[in-house]
Write a structure and sequence with these properties.
The structure is a single chain. The chain has 506 residues and is of the alpha+beta class. Among the domains are: 1-119 and 398-434, no CATH class; 185-361, no CATH class. Helices cover 41% and strands 23% of the residues. The protein has helices spanning 2-6, 16-52, 69-75, 85-106, 108-114, 143-156, 210-213, 259-262, 334-354, 364-379, 401-424, 437-449, 462-472, 480-487, 494-505, and strands at residues 7-9, 116-131, 162-163, 166-168, 174-175, 185-196, 200-202, 230-235, 240-241, 244-256, 275-291, 297-299, 301-303, 306-318, 384-400. Strands 3, 6, 8, 9, 10, 11, 12 and 14 form an eight-stranded antiparallel beta sheet that branches. Strands 1, 2, 4, 5 and 15 form a five-stranded antiparallel beta sheet that branches. Strands 7-13 form a two-stranded antiparallel sheet. The protein is elongated, with a radius of gyration of 44 Å. Mean pLDDT is 83; it is low at 472-506. Keywords: Membrane, Transmembrane, Transmembrane helix. The chain crosses the membrane at residues 20-43, 87-107, 399-422.
């Protein structure tokens, strides 16, 4: 829930790299605009103050409006307490804002990097896959396919109560959504967590039944497992050293015997009757082993040092009778089903045992998840392709909501400030106060030349400027009489000029 609040989805077609590049560009642009607005607003406040108060009491620094981080640094040596708190705030506040905006522009790339990420959005899409059939009774030695299917089931969130009629392409990151599926079989399971059990090995019994080799095992199964309507299977991978099996995983399955149905319905290749499937995994540590004359290794006689078991006991029922492509648990090759468990876990068990690592003991949920994957991969071997609309996880760029909120608030504040100081807050009529460096240079030229100059004059060379000074015959400020004449406006009465000149001479 918190993740949904802090991040917002962008269109799925947008690329993460492009979003970050554009976001960094936008941050830079907004910082430049913000710096200009701050500089303009600072100048206008000082200019209005200059014309509304007595000019002689207004300090020149009140007209200073820094336009970049370098100019902010230049003003620092001039800051002192004698300027007064108002003038200090007039300089410090815009300087601090410009420093913050300049820093934000410099680090705009990291800001864009950490304010965006790749998220996942669930969307219904048409995906390809394979349909289940009842043509195959088993699938052997397919650990890679089983592993990929289990991983995809886990990532998709497939519940442990379904048998799949349709297997989407494993390269598609699909997600299970119950309204989109109408599988033909469902399951109701009970799980037994890892439980210790004391076992005693009776050797390789002539009957070949695991119940006779380890009498204690039968106690954990339902009481009617010895009835003929049930079939059992066994797989027991694991390494040995000397006269001991170091670690063994005994996979024992007990399921409804297919003869119960097939004998009743001769020639049928599928079945809709209720179906029971129990799978247990026993971990036996340091079990006695026996070497026969032909070099084979069988069960020895004696106590098992340590042993535990997990179990999944499931009742399966047919839900959908209309579909032609359905899961097929009623296979006659029930012994190959349990052998698939052994083949899947054999390599990892051997490696962990020889390395003296913790042995992974599959839980009851793990056991049924493998059963789901086994049946699904077994039933789609005809590779009858089809397409269905199901939920798919689509990689989507996400933008941080706090960063987006800050940008929007900043944009509103800058817009209001620009509107207020550019449009509403106006200088008095006729007021002219230099703002930019170009305007201050033109002002300096006017003061030097004693006449009006336009901006094009600033494009002249320094030699041309000096020639312009000579042509204008500018007098020095050391001559008070000439300075007075320079201040007399055209159209003033000649008598007034003469009286003023007489008073200066006196």
């Amino acid at each position: 829930m918190v993740s949904l609040i802090l991040w917002v989805f962008l269109p799925a077609s947008w690329d993460l790299g492009n979003v970050r590049a554009i976001l960094a560009l936008i941050i830079n642009f907004l910082c430049v605009v913000g710096i200009w607005v701050v500089a303009y607003s600072t100048w206008k406040v000082g200019a209005i103050k200059l014309y509304r108060s007595h000019k002689s009491s207004t300090k020149l620094l009140s007209l200073y409006s820094p336009t970049g981080l370098g100019e902010v640094l230049e003003i620092i040596p001039l800051l002192r307490g004698s300027l007064g708190i108002r003038l200090l705030m007039h300089l410090l506040i815009p300087g601090a804002i410009i420093a913050i905006l300049s820093t934000a522009a410099i680090i705009s790339a990291p800001i864009a990097r950490y304010s965006t990420r790749v998220g996942i959005q669930i969307e219904p899409k048409l995906v390809s896959g394979t349909l289940a059939t009842h043509s195959h009774r088993s699938i052997n030695n397919a650990p890679v396919k089983w592993n990929n299917t289990i991983e995809r089931f886990n990532l998709a969130g497939l519940p442990l109560n379904q048998l799949m009629d349709f297997l989407p392409d494993n390269t598609i990151d699909w997600k299970y959504s119950e309204p989109e599926w109408n599988n033909s079989w469902s399951a109701s399971c009970q799980w037994s967590e890892r439980t210790p059990i004391k076992l005693y090995a009776m050797g390789n019994a002539s009957s070949g039944r695991i119940w006779d080799m380890f009498p204690g095992i039968s106690a954990v199964f339902p009481g009617d497992i010895l009835e003929t309507k049930y079939a059992s299977g066994l797989a027991n991978p694991g390494p040995y050293r000397g006269n001991l099996f170091l670690d063994k995983l005994l996979f024992i399955s007990v399921q409804t015997h297919p003869n119960v149905s097939f004998n009743a319905t001769p020639g049928s290749s599928t079945n809709s009757r209720p179906f029971h499937f129990t799978i247990a995994a026993f971990h036996l540590k340091n079990t006695p082993a026996n070497f026969t004359d032909d070099g084979s290794v069988t069960w020895g006689t004696g106590p098992v040092e340590q042993s535990w078991y997990t179990m999944a006991s499931c009742d399966l029922k047919r839900d959908n009778y209309a579909q032609r492509h359905i899961a097929y648990p009623w296979t006659k090759d029930y012994d190959w089903t349990v052998k698939a468990f052994g083949a899947y876990y054999h390599a990892s068990l051997t490696e962990q045992s020889f390395r003296k690592e913790l042995i992974y003991h599959p839980s009851g949920q793990d056991l049924f998840r493998f059963y789901q994957a086994y049946l699904a991969t077994k039933d789609v071997q005809d590779y009858e392709m089809a397409e269905r609309v199901i939920s798919v996880a689509v990689p989507t760029v996400e933008l941080s909501v706090p960063v987006l909120a800050v940008l929007l608030i900043y944009l509103v504040m800058i817009g209001l400030a620009a509107f207020w100081f550019v449009t509403v807050k106006r200088l008095p009529t006729g007021a002219s106060v230099p703002r930019t460096k170009v305007e201050w240079m033109a002002q300096g030229m006017r003061e030097s030349l004693g006449r009006e100059v336009d901006a094009s004059y600033l494009c002249a060379s320094w030699g041309q400027v000096q020639a312009g000074l000579r042509d204008a015959k500018i007098v020095t400020v050391r001559d008070p009489l000439q300075r007075l004449y320079n201040t007399i406006q055209p159209g003033q009465h000649v008598e007034q000029h003469r009286s003023m000149e007489g008073s200066l001479k006196a």
